[in-house]
Amino acid sequence: MSAPPSATLVLVHPAPLERLVIPAALDGHAGTNRATGGVAQLAAANDLEAIRAWLARFADKQTTFDSYRKEAERLLLWSLVQLGKPLSSLTHEDCLRYQRFLADPQPAATWIANAGAGGGRKHPRGDARWRPFHGPLSPASVRQAMVILNVLFSWLVQAGYLAGNPLALSRQRTRKVAPRITRYLEPGLWQAVKDSIASMPQDTSRERARYHRARWLFTLLYLGGLRIAEVSGNTMGQFFVRPDVDGTMRWWLTVHGKGDRERLVPATRELMTELSRYRQSLGMTALPSPNEATPLLVPIGSTTDATAMKAKGRRATDGGHTVAPRPLTRAAVHTIVKDVFARAAGRLRERGSEYAARADLLEKASAHWLRHTAGSHMVDHQVDLRHVRDTFGHASLTTTSIYLHVDEDRRHQETDEKHHIDW
């Protein structure tokens, strides 16, 4: 399919949904795939309103909302800028073309943030440098994008806004279960990451803060098996201590995670030691207080005022309420993790060309690799698979049975004995 005449490319550069102004000729009020019969269950008069109505269903689930908005936004902008047609006029052939586009968004200057420097840098949505992409999508990310868009189109058909789902004709592949997890770090590579963190400079207060933050973050991701969104969305006040059936005091972390599910993560002695180390580097008490609002990962410099006031015997307050530091965003946590992996990869390359392949693997790694790494290492050390399942939140926890309570205590003890970070 040839590109439309340049005169139809009304939008020069893509803009976020909240700032997007679409000409009437492209807003979809008369899209060729608009439903014409029956009773519409949606008050939306155009494509942008329809997308906003769909996204409103996920407003209370920030991670899902962000993911779904990103994919709907990309498709809408591509339809307007690249094809010069409304989203509600897209055909099956258009969707196939878009699928290929995701693997190589061109022209890069239009679609990829910081394209001249190789992409990858994220800009705020209000920044003029904002773009919908940060680089080409991997095959797995392309598949995930098309799954989300299929959900969007199906819902718009069900709501009586669209006549049909242009993606419904796509060949549905049966997903095969991978024989094993491949996105993880084997022990030698994991040691290289820890060595890299241990070698971080600590000459200035800011360098020391970065070192302590990186060490604590990787401890939390590895020993706790947390997802990156769970680091941003939980607080230190969710650590608590309780005696087991033998009277031993054991620390736990209540994690509010994916799908609004709650799980208990064993806070091993090593994890609590690292928590105390991190908190003391911030000028805080070694252990958190119940219901403390301090984020699990604190932005550098954000506790300075509170620490200074505490030293004078007062609490940092705002209108009579204790002020807690703002949590780091998921994007900020992701950047810290990628920076650590990049640093470790650089150190490997310095050791010679025979380490290039291992360095390449590290540069591809993400925070979720640490979750897979932790799970793989726990199984390698023969931690009971049921304990791994419960720690990682692969099944709901039930705490009403005394027998399950004993199982939890055993899980804590076994995790403590067999799953270490060994800084």
From TrEMBL:
Top-level division of the source organism's lineage: Bacteria
Core-binding (CB) domain location: 45-157
InterPro entries (UniProt xref): CB, DNA_brk_join_enz, Integrase-like_cat_sf, Integrase_catalytic, Integrase_recombinase_N, Tyrosine_recombinase_XerCD
PROSITE patterns found in the cross-reference section: CB (PS51900), TYR_RECOMBINASE (PS51898)
Tyr recombinase domain ranges (all copies): 180-416
Subcellular location: Cytoplasm
Pfam families assigned: Phage_integrase
Keywords tagged on the record: Cell cycle, Cell division, Chromosome partition, Cytoplasm, DNA integration, DNA recombination, DNA-binding
Major localization class: cytoplasm
Name the record gives this protein: Integrase
